[in-house]
Design a protein that fits this description.
Chain lengths: 278, 279
């Protein structure tokens, strides 16, 4: 009886989630290095009804009628498109100019364990770790890693910070030149990555179950490959959220929501008609 | 006695079915590659009415003959006979994803029997080894690097093999060739059906060819024109304004049937409470 009500309700719940995804994109329109998510829909499974056995009338379609049950979000994809670069003239701001390349960051977990995550937000800082050494950290205070997965420590106080076109950070402290290769990876299958807090991407926990090695999912940019690193010093990569598209999608979702609410109220009125029969 | 009582009820059930179908279309107004379903209603098979009567022949003793004069044909209801997907090209919309593809078809030859144009589809591998078809080109790369649908069905190339790619950095030419760093690695499989109405809609964007039917490769067909557009998705071909109109229409038809049912109810009420009354 209330089949259409259920169909509409199923879809309304999913539209709500699409709305959440769009809202999150809009909220991050000013977040550096942010990559927008795009949700797409698919129809739910259909049910076949053999509503007239022995139906011998001419027909175009196979026997029975097939009724759908609404729609659901099929996937939410990470859009890896390049964001625009904003000049900041700050020597510790780095913007990527190549898609799918990420910095490696060491995250301290709640129970003391450490995990490697990936970010494109390149606003870095030096934090003192003792009287004469400084460590390179990102905006969240998490340590950046070099190409060999070690934290980056310089003798301080540092000045004259320079980035080479192969992603090597050169600093001098008291006239002594020091350099380190910033750890950069090229993530080959961004859709496999998990989005975690603060704009970080992390490897999925079930990678082994999937039968995949981390090396297949991402390429370490080392040796010859460092020539392909696209990093610009003194700039920050802006969010790649396109507000026009986001708002268009928002309007579309809202109207779909209205249409389906109308379908529910019609279904309710139909139930009212049945109740009013006697 | 009151034959139309159940006729009106079947009318309500059929209109209920129609609203179910239209609500599903409305739900999928945003689903890539979705084809709107259309309903066709059919009257219950005819039945021939005749009245039981007798005719008196004025003879000496008075002769009575039984006869049954024919009254005419009557249909005692309606039901939804078919749900027919509307196989027309949907609009295409840019998405920026290299793993999104839209099939854009030109003129298709008309089927000699049905008079309707043919249709082309992407080919997918079902876990049981058989093939499925879809118009939803919203693909992705799985952990192993195979091109799959959002639900993990492998997308097949024109030779029926899975498509394996290193990363999402690849180009698809308009004739379906997947190019990685300047070399052809595969060609997206596209199947042609000259009678798409015979396909079974399984939902989730999947269509199944009838048992034993193998659809031909669309690239080998000479008289059809189409192209594969990378970075685009074919939108649903549901027209929301029309669907809403049809929904209102179905609702009112439901209401009309309910009113007829009430009229019958009053007739029955009269029969029960007044016709048989003694005083």
């Amino acid at each position: 009886m209330t089949r259409n009500m259920v169909t509409a309700t199923n879809t309304l719940g999913q539209l709500q989630q699409q709305l959440d995804i769009i809202s999150n994109n809009i909220a991050n329109v000013d977040t550096i290095g942010y990559k927008q998510s795009t949700a797409t829909f698919t129809s739910l499974l259909t049910q076949e009804f053999q509503n007239q056995r022995g139906d011998d009338a001419d027909r175009q379609t196979p026997l029975g009628i097939r009724m759908g049950n609404g729609a659901k979000i099929a996937q939410s994809q990470l859009n890896g498109k390049q964001g625009s670069l904003q000049g900041t003239d700050r020597s510790l701001d780095f913007g990527f100019t190549a898609e799918n390349q990420y910095f490696k960051v060491l995250i301290q977990g709640a129970n003391g364990d450490q995990e490697q995550n990936f970010t494109r937000a390149g606003a870095f800082y030096f934090t003192p770790i003792n009287d004469d050494e400084v460590m390179l950290v990102d905006g969240q205070g998490n340590a950046l890693l070099n190409q060999n997965d070690e934290i980056i420590v310089f003798d301080g106080p540092v000045d004259n910070i320079r980035l080479t076109n192969t992603g090597t950070l050169q600093v001098s402290a008291n006239g002594v030149q020091q350099e380190v290769d910033l750890g950069v990876v090229n993530i080959q299958r961004p859709q496999l990555m998990e989005r975690v807090a603060s704009g970080y991407l992390s490897m999925p926990n079930n990678l082994e179950e999937l039968g995949v090695f981390p090396g297949e999912v991402m390429v370490q940019m080392e040796g010859e490959l460092r020539q392909q690193i696209g990093l610009e010093q003194g700039t920050l990569e802006q969010s790649n959220v396109d507000l026009t598209t986001a708002y268009t999608d928002l309007i579309e979702v809202q109207r779909n929501y209205q249409f389906l609410s109308r379908a529910i109220s019609m279904s309710d009125q139909m139930a009212g008609l049945v109740n009013g029969m006697r | 006695m009151f034959r139309g009582f159940y006729t009106a009820a079947t009318g309500m059930i059929a209109q209920q079915r129609r609203t179910d179908l239209l609500t599903n279309n409305m739900s999928n107004v945003n689903t890539p590659g979705f084809k709107a379903d259309q309903s066709s209603m059919r009257a219950f098979p005819d039945m021939l009415l005749s009245s039981l009567g007798e005719s008196k022949i004025p003879t000496e003793k008075g002769l009575t003959l039984a006869n049954m004069p024919t009254v005419g044909a009557l249909n005692t209801g309606v039901y939804m006979q078919e749900t027919i997907p509307l196989f027309t090209q949907g609009d295409v919309r840019e998405t920026q994803f290299t793993t999104d593809m839209a099939l854009v078809q030109g003129d298709m030859p008309l089927n000699g029997e049905t008079g309707l144009p043919g249709m082309i589809f992407f080919t997918l591998e079902n876990p049981d080894g058989t093939n499925r078809l879809t118009r939803n080109g919203n693909f992705t790369l799985d952990a192993q690097g195979f091109l799959t649908t959002a639900n993990g069905y492998y997308v097949l190339d024109d030779a029926g093999n899975r498509i394996e790619l290193e990363s999402d950095q690849f180009q698809v030419s308009e004739d379906g060739r997947i190019v990685v760093d300047g070399t052809d690695v595969a060609r997206v499989g596209v199947a042609y059906s000259d009678d798409p109405q015979a396909l079974v809609n399984e939902g989730d964007g999947l269509l199944r060819a009838p048992d034993g039917v193998v659809l031909p490769n669309a690239y080998a067909q000479e008289d059809i024109a189409f192209r594969v557009n990378q970075g685009f998705l074919e939108q649903s071909n549901v027209d929301s304004a029309r669907t809403m109109t049809d929904l209102t229409n179905a609702y009112r038809a439901y209401e009309a049937n309910q009113t007829v049912l009430q009229a019958y109810d009053r007739s029955i009420e009269k029969t029960v409470n007044e016709v048989g009354r003694v005083n």
